[in-house]
Amino acid sequence: MAATVTPAAVGDAGLGDLIPFWTDVRRRFLRNKLAVGSVVYVVLLSLIAILAPLITFYGPKKINPAASLGKPSRAHWMGTDLLGRDVWTRLAFGARISLSVALAVVVVSTVLSLLVGALAGYFGGWWDTITMRTADVFSTLPYIVVVLFFISVFGRKVWVIVLAIVALGWMGSARLFRAGVLQVKSQEYIEAARASGCSTLRILTRHVLPNAIQPIIVSVAFGIGSAILLESVFGFLGVGIAEPTPAWGLMVGDARDHLFDAPHLFFFPAGALVLTVLAFTFIGDGLRDALDPKLRGAK
Amino acid sequence: MASYLIRRLGLALLVVWGAVTIMFVMFFVIPGNTIDILSGEKVVRPEIRRTIEKEWGLDKSVTGQYVHYWNRVLHGDLGKSYSNNRSVNELFKQRAANSARLAFWGLTIEIVFGIGIGVIAAVRKYSLLDVVTGFVAVALAGIPVFVLGLLLQYGLGVRPAQWNWPRWARFPVQGMGPNRWFVVIPLGHQWKYLILPAIVLACVQTGFITRISRTSMLEVLNADYVRTARAKGLRSSTVIVKHALRNALLPTLTVIGLDVIGLFGVAVLTETVFNWPGLGSTIRDYAFAQDVPVVLGLASIVVLFGAMASLLVDVGYSILDPRVRLTTEKVD
User: Fold this and answer.
1) Has residue B332 got a pLDDT over 50?
2) A5-295 to CATH, choices 3.60.140.10, 1.10.3720.10, 3.40.640.10, 2.30.29.170
3) Which domain holds residue B107?
4) Which residue of A143, A151, A256 is the best one to mutate when testing the B interface, meaning the one whose CB has the most B CBs within 10 A?
5) Which pLDDT tens digit goes with each residue over B39-67?
6) Domain count of chain B?
7) pLDDT digits (tens, 9 = 90+) for A235-255
8) At residue A102, does pLDDT exceed 90?
9) What is the CATH number of the domain that holds B252?
């Protein structure tokens, strides 16, 4: 990460017609088949989520006792659950929940950890001590305690689960951003900017952040995957978003009692979950390798 | 060394204090619905509400409750359940051994397979085994624990039963079975109930340990002293085991020791999937019922245990590698 080659830096060095940094990154990313395939998958999944009402034929909460535990058939091509609800419909609407929860988590968490981490790294001192020690303490809390707190105070709603996942995940990215800023801070161009009279805000937004952005991009990709994972864990344990909202983890949890008589209830949502989490992992890997080829293979 | 130990112990205590205090603030200071849980969410008459508050100490000031809480915890009383009045100490005593046995086997599997595969993958870099295990490690990180558990239940328990496979090829999928143990060694048929949850508990970390031990092994294999050992004409196996492995193990052991809290998180899922009557499934059941004292009591033990493990790892590391001690002393 030390030698972040920005277009400007390359130009200054007078190395002639080198490719601009981001073109190079794009080229390296596109060469990674797994990552590109994952992007295609995520685009498809997002389309399914957005178009859910158009491509499904039942309501996601529509109960039909006559069709209880139906096997996959022409009318219900992924079968039906105990209450006779169409699994494909619930899966498509569940994609909305998974993706929107993950997106909200990543936005809130990135902003929060940037504020905490970048400021801690840049200013150091008591803010640094307090926030980093708080992060240490937070990482010792079992997740079930944190989520129990949120649902017992605010109820099992979507935004509550978002907050719970943020509360569990901000420490990692805050530490990452802090390290990035610390590393950039000691560079000479920051000193030059300060010497030429730039305000702190300008230095932070125009000089520090653009140069510390790589770990942020990578952590966003990984963050989406782990937010989806955590949301499904809560759903499975019955401490996440409440029925009858169609959430994937919840659907897998329901399938537990029907492994014998209706295994399709397990395989469809579980498959969607695994594919989605893996896709974001591969995208994260691809981005990391593309942004910094030196890190290839490292975690 | 003594000053390092004292500082490290102080830090551990500080973290435990911080975590328990945060939990206290979350559940007792921020207004929740304690009374609703206690009264079963019925409308409660004011005088009954007052009686309940008094009985549970909710009428005291926040500081009063906090002091009372610590007083209780320091005297070894973890509180009692809101929903069924059972003592948390008693619950812990009943369930801890079950969890410990499962965790023992989970840890054994992840250490043996994680380090074993990692070392072989490093020694035979880019071989088929290296590529395959690398891919499996990534895939395992993407499969939620509960999905893996249900998948094993389906493939090794449900399907064989439906197809009438011989008895030895079927695995039970729920509960702990006969509960016959010699300390941690399963007796009789017990192992059949143990093996699937133990594998599931180990899986996530096994992938992680494989990657870490592979990376650190690769680093060490390129070190000068390993080349020297080879140049002296020592046998390849001697070089790998005596010179390389010893040094490569340090970072791996740290990862294993530091992840008590993470392991507990996986245990919550594993024990829930398999209905294993341990601490994890207990904390989940009570969290589901929003029974705060039980969850808090058990979680405090987990936090304490995690802090102790990380303390032991750090101290152990500083004994094995004195450079750690020196650098932290310089930084402070």
Assistant:
1) no
2) 1.10.3720.10
3) 91-331
4) A256
5) 555 566 777 777 767 766 777 777 888 88
6) 1
7) 999 888 888 888 899 999 888
8) yes
9) 1.10.3720.10
Q: How many CA atoms lie within 13 A of A37 on its CB side?
A: 8
Q: Which residue of A has its CA nearest to B308?
A: A140
For residue B174, the chain A residues in CB contact (below 8 A) are none
Q: How confident is the model at residue B326 (pLDDT cuts 50, 70, 90)?
A: low
Nearest to A270 among B15, B150, B306 (CB): B150
pLDDT confidence of residue B33 = 55
Q: Nearest CB to B138: which of A133, A137, A281?
A: A281
Q: Is B209 among the domain residues?
A: yes
A236 touches chain B (CB under 8 A): yes
- Taking the CA of residue A157 and the nearest CA in chain B, the distance in Å comes to 15
Nearest CA in chain B to A140: B303
> For residue B304, which residues of chain A lie inside 8 Å, CB to CB?
none
Is B49 inside a domain boundary?
no
Q: What is the pLDDT of residues B68-124, one digit of tens each?
A: 888 888 888 888 887 788 888 999 998 999 999 999 999 999 899 999 999 999 888
Using the Cβ of A138 and the Cβ atoms of chain B, whether some distance falls under 8 Å is answered with yes
Q: Residue B85 domain-assigned?
A: no
Residue B329 has pLDDT above 50, yes or no: no
Of A137, A256, A270, the CB nearest to B22: A137
Q: Find the residue in B nearest to A264 (Cα).
A: B154
What was the ipTM of the complex prediction? 0.85
Say if B295 falls within a structural domain. yes
Kindly list the domain boundaries of chain A, sorted by start residue. 5-295
What are the pLDDT digits (tens) for B187-224? Answer: 888 888 888 999 999 988 888 888 888 988 888 888 88
What integer pLDDT is reported at residue B69 of this predicted model? Answer: 81
- Decide if A237 and B307 are in contact by the 8 Å CB cutoff: no
User: Which chain A positions have a beta carbon within 8 Å of B273's beta carbon?
Assistant: 256
Predicted local confidence at residue A10, as pLDDT? 45
